[in-house]
Amino acid sequence: MWTSGLDWDDPLNQSQARQAKKWFEELKVSCCLQLNSDVETVTLHTFTDASGYAYGAATYIRYRYKGDAVSTSVVASKT
Questions:
Q1: Helices marked H in 1-75
Q2: 3-state secondary structure of 4
Q3: How far is residue 2's CA from residue 60's CA, in Å, rounded to a whole number?
Q4: pLDDT 10s digits, 25-55
Q5: For residue 11, what are the CA distances in angstroms to 25, 36, 44?
Q6: Where residue 67 falls among pLDDT bands split at 50, 70, 90?
Q7: Residue spans per domain, the chain
Q8: Who's near 42: CB < 8 A, 6+ residues apart?
Q9: Measured between alpha carbons, how far is 9 from 56 in angstroms, rounded to an integer?
Q10: Lowest mean pLDDT among 1-5, 25-29, 33-37, 66-70
Q11: H-helix or E-strand spanning residue 42
């Protein structure tokens, strides 16, 4: 998609949207992500980067617990 000259906030055309959907469907997300009563909030954070030659993405899950302790884990990544 980056080779088509899109800016980060440009809408995708139908072909690009299909490609993006396929890419996301190929991500394997762990089914073992569990919550317990100490978890106050859960957020997902996705980071992406691309050049003319390659791209990469990583998604992390962030748990905030009672008492303000925080933990993070990689959920999925792809290059």
A1: 14-26
A2: helix
A3: 23
A4: 776 665 556 677 888 988 888 898 988 888 8
A5: 20, 38, 22
A6: very high
A7: 33-79
A8: 35, 61, 62, 63, 64
A9: 18
A10: 25-29
A11: strand 39-50
